[in-house]
Amino acid sequence: MATPSGGLKPFYLVLGVAAVAAIAVLGYLAMRPAVSIPVDVKVMPADTAGFRGYLLGADSAPVEVTEYADYQCPSCAQFEEVQFPDIRSRLIAAGRLRWRYRDFPLSQHPFSRVAAHSAACASDQGKFWEQHTRIYEGQSDWAVKRDASGTFRDYAQANGLDLARYDACMKSARYAGRIQASYEEGVAVGVTQTPTLMVGNRLYPGGLPYDALKHLVDSLSTQPAR
Predict the structure, then answer these.
(1) Domain-embedded: residue 39
(2) Taking the chain (226 residues) in consecutive chunks of 10 residues, what is each chunk's mean pLDDT?
(3) Would the pTM count as exceeding 0.90?
């Protein structure tokens, strides 16, 4: 039996409203960041147990430098690209310096914690420094995107990570507490900007150029200068 045409109008109206609602939901999901890392989480003992930072260099190195940095900080990227290659090849690789990297995500940088978590997940697979370097090198690209997490995943793939493990790690946000603990450590020692280097108990806001850092290492080390 045919339905009067007048009876179809409410049906189509409801159908149209439902379609608009569905489009709105899909639009919201498309705009929502794929990965979100909590801020100001409560740090648990397990977050820091056995972990004091990402270390590079020999345990026997006479000098240790701690870098507090933010992956979305332009000055940090400049330090990483301009100064750190010489520091790494001439001081760290030579056994004269050990580097300790600590996350200090600034609140004005929306992707800094996601970037830090991406590097932490890469560390699970022995690729922290590879991911770390790619994130800094690509900062001018991902920092202007709506959602940078996909770019970090591309870096993980390029670095040869198992993407299933990486994705599970990122979605779990398991290192949010570690990142927060690192930030709190920086605040406790007096860090107010990034990058900041700490040598002994002295802070060097803005970092140090290679020549100045080498001179400092020379003055603190019992090894002959090279």
Answers:
(1) no
(2) 46 48 41 71 94 96 98 98 98 98 97 98 98 98 95 98 98 97 97 97 96 96 56
(3) no
